[in-house]
Design brief:
The protein is α/β, with parallel strands linked by helices. The protein has 5 helices and 10 strands; from the N terminus they run αβαβββαβαβββαββ. β2 and β3 form a beta hairpin. The longest helix has 9 residues, at 2-10.
Length: 157
């Protein structure tokens, strides 16, 4: 269901045929990089957090970037906490390992971290533990209806 919701979502741009399913897992950054044949940093990982109230927040960052709690607190004005696997599935419609900012069950706020901007293309998952699509950061922003580019990561520069 989740992979299909992503395919349906990218149909708006006639890109459903660009969603690739793999025979091997792409559930972790390391597995995705190996399966696709790119560096870890070019994997666009989607991290799920609880914002204020019950609102979920998705932050999409480069595979080699880590959330900087201080930057995150300064950006959002509160300490965001990671969602549990059940909360991730409930909020996004995607299981961990396939979470992406498209074809979402609800409308969480989506933010893209500047760590992605250094690449011509990146590879976010597509709703399953063995899928991805290659997108430019600009197109990723468009497809995800992201709110704004943010700088909340460390260890990638």
């Amino acid at each position: 269901m989740s992979l299909e919701s992503v395919r349906t979502h990218v149909t708006q741009w006639n890109r459903e045929n660009d969603v690739t399913e793999f025979k091997t897992s792409s559930a972790t950054v390391e597995q995705a990089a190996e399966t696709i044949g790119v560096s870890l940093s070019r994997i666009a990982k989607s991290l799920s957090f609880r914002g204020e109230g019950d609102q979920a927040i998705l932050i999409v960052a480069a595979g080699d970037a880590k959330i900087d709690n201080k930057k995150s607190r300064q950006t959002f004005g509160f300490k965001a906490r990671m969602l549990s696997p059940n909360e991730v599935l409930e909020q996004t419609g995607h299981e961990i390992g396939g979470v992406c900012p498209f074809g979402l069950a609800h409308d969480p706020e989506v933010y893209l971290d500047v760590s992605l901007k250094r690449f011509q293309t990146v590879f976010p998952a597509c709703g399953s533990r063995n899928s991805a699509i290659e997108l430019t950061p600009k197109v990723l922003s468009e497809f995800s209806f992201s709110k704004v580019w943010i700088d909340v990561c460390k260890d990638w520069e």
